[in-house]
Design a protein that fits this description.
109 residues; alpha+beta; 3 strands; three-stranded antiparallel beta sheet
Length: 109
């Protein structure tokens, strides 16, 4: 069965993947990976001008882009409950015309 990892020559050598294998593994565009590597936003190895990634790099890339749910503080929940009953929407305030966009008549300064 083929693997995305190159077979290491030594038993303790770390397995590495190239940018194409990483793109396939994470369902990303190669250009996304290249741009992030060039800007040093994701961890990688640069060997002979080629980007390579170890399993530790892949795990870190995934964890860097993980989003966790944020629980609302109890005080904020109470404030939202006290502001208005459900279904009631506050009216919008009329701000008038923006003065910086009004044209002045010719001759006026």
């Amino acid at each position: 069965m083929p693997s995305d990892y190159a077979e290491p020559k030594e038993p303790n050598a770390p397995q590495v993947v190239d940018k194409y294998q990483l793109a396939n593994l994470l369902s990303l565009k190669v250009s996304w990976i290249e741009e992030r590597c060039r800007r040093r936003l994701i961890p990688h190895l640069l060997i002979a001008g080629q980007y390579r990634f170890t399993q530790a790099h892949i795990t870190e890339i995934i964890s860097m882009h993980e989003r966790r749910p944020v629980a609302e503080p109890a005080a904020a929940q109470q404030r939202h409950a006290q502001q208005s009953p459900p279904g009631l929407v506050a009216p919008l305030r009329n701000r008038g015309l923006p003065t910086h966009r009004l044209r002045r008549p010719n001759g006026a300064s």
